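HOLO CASE FILE
Compound: S-adenosylmethionine
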Amino acid sequence: MATENPQKLRNDWTREEVNALFQLPFNDLFYQAQSVHRENFNPNQIQLSTLLSIKTGACPEDCKYCPQSARYDTGLEKEKLLQIQKVIEAAKAAKASGSSRFCMGAAWRSPHDRDIPALEAMIKEVKGLGLETCMTLGMLSENQAQRLSDAGLDYYNHNLDTSKEFYGDIITTRTYQDRLDTLNHVRQSGMKVCAGGIVGMGEQQSDRVGLLMELANLPTHPESVPINMLVKVAGTPLEDQQDLDPFEFIRTIAVARIMMPKSYVRLSAGREEMNDQMQAMAFMAGANSIFYCDKLLTTPNPHANSDMQLLQRLGMSPEQCAIEQDSEEQEAALHQAIEDQKNDHLFYRAS
Ligand code: SAM
Ligand code: DTB
Ligand code: SF4
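Model generated. Tokens follow.
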């Protein structure tokens, strides 16, 4: 059976095995996922990442879910690449609020080489604040990946989005192989890989199985696996998509946790539509990372205050930044920021 030795990382998952996990009674699946989670992580800690859109809208790609595609009228104000000062301000605020990673996203098919120096400067400045850095900029060539890695970028996010079979129903302007090539360039450059997908786009369960198989059967598991619930944005072709059964979403998280035991599984976009119970269930199923910011790239996300309250109510706490602190002073400042925030919430709850 697939999980005889959950400590051993596998990249030879068969469709039958993964189907069988999805078919398990909910409680049995939960039990397995929790067991795997506890063997590999502190189950009461959550990694917090803050997202910032550094270049918004007017994207030439046709991803049917995306409010930033120039092909759909979503009423989005497009913006040029942000000035570095704005990025630094946002990163400082992220750090002060207790986030450990700062993710910068751009609505590009791929970056132009002329943009790389500005991106390198952003990476260096954000890293200098003692935050982990992540970017998602579209497809990367081998050389671009290496340059970002050399500048100190810790993670690169590039999602497979769905199964190979369903992919063509969602995106036609780049291929699945293009995405795998970018993931390979990222891996070869020495950066950590953040790769996941979206559920609730009208795919079948077999597509969710296919997506997780693609991710878990990569030569090395992505260190970070964002599972996004589709955010239905007016003007996109998927705006009227039927809701996915919430239990099926939780199942997807649990199966991801079992297949990729040592990866961070991120309860990613879509939390605005989830109540606290649903999010708690996702954490119980093995999700151990969230986007902690009032806005994702262009759509709303739960407020930082309510996230801190939820973590407190569940007896959970934010994971500390994995990179070395520049100084004890900086570490003390982070502790203080978290404590201040906790006190604010206690006050908020009491009043
Ligand atoms: N343009 C780059 C790219 O596509 O690789 C980077 C930014 S793009 C917005 C990053 C990811 O956000 C997409 O691959 C997709 O998985 C996710 N995403 C975009 N719109 C979404 C939506 N409406 N709901 C859920 N996830 C979404
Ligand atoms: C990921 O998997 N989800 C994030 C991040 N990677 C870049 C993006 C979610 C975007 C949701 C729609 C929006 O806010 O525009
Ligand atoms: Fe462009 Fe990325 Fe949106 Fe696709 S997901 S339209 S590539 S911003």
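CASE NOTES: Residues 51, 67, 105, 136, 157, 159, 196, 226, 228, 231, 268-269, 296-299 surround DTB (ligand 2) (CB under 6 Å). The radius of gyration is 19 Å.
CLOSED: yes
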